[in-house]
């Protein structure tokens, strides 16, 4: 006959589960289930909050800086033979098309049509 050598295995025990009894409060069980932040986690949360605050602050700062200085404008009266293109080229000889669009926007115009005697708000020259 032959024999088999069997090595003994250690018995695995499961940790005991604590079931709250009537004497224990449920708050203690809730405290154990709460997430606890490590120092690294606290740093990450702090840094994310700091970035959020700085981003919002710079966003509002840039928006208010852009609206603090109003554009210098002047009012002109349209004379016979004046065109919006001609007026825009006198004010800004470089990019006339952009100036025509800007004058239309300042005056709430839908088209480039002008009438003699019409008052136009235009950016100040120079």
Describe the structure.
With 126 residues, the protein is mainly alpha-helical. Among the domains are: 31 residues; 51 residues, Membrane-bound Lytic Murein Transglycosylase D, Chain A. The protein is 46% helix and 8% strand. Helix 3 crosses helix 4. It is rod-shaped, with a radius of gyration of 39 Å. The mean pLDDT is 80.
The helix/strand series, from N terminus to C terminus, equals HHEHHE
- What is the rounded distance between the termini? 115 Å
How many extended strands? 2
Instruction: Profile the largest sheet.
Output: 2 strands, antiparallel
**CATH fold topology of the domain at 73-123:** Membrane-bound Lytic Murein Transglycosylase D, Chain A
Main traits of this protein?
8% strand; two-stranded antiparallel sheet; Membrane-bound Lytic Murein Transglycosylase D, Chain A; 126 residues; mainly alpha; 4 helices
Task: Please provide a brief summary of the model.
The chain is mainly α and 126 residues long. It is built from 4 helices and 2 strands.
Give the SSE layout.
Blueprint (H helix, E strand, L loop, with lengths): L25 H8 L5 H30 L4 E5 L6 H8 L4 H12 L11 E5 L3
Antiparallel strand pairs: 1-2
Helix pairs in contact: 3-4
């Amino acid at each position: 006959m032959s024999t088999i050598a069997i090595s003994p295995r250690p018995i695995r025990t499961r940790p005991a589960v604590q079931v709250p009894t009537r004497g224990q409060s449920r708050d203690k069980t809730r405290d154990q289930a709460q997430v606890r932040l490590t120092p690294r986690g606290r740093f990450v949360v702090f840094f994310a909050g700091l970035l959020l605050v700085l981003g919002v602050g710079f966003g509002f700062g840039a928006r208010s800086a852009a609206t603090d200085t109003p554009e210098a404008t002047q009012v002109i009266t349209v004379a016979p033979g004046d065109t919006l293109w001609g007026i825009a080229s006198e004010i800004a000889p470089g990019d006339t098309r952009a100036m025509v669009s800007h004058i239309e926007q300042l005056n709430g115009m839908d088209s480039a049509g002008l009438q003699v005697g019409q008052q136009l708000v235009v950016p100040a020259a120079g």
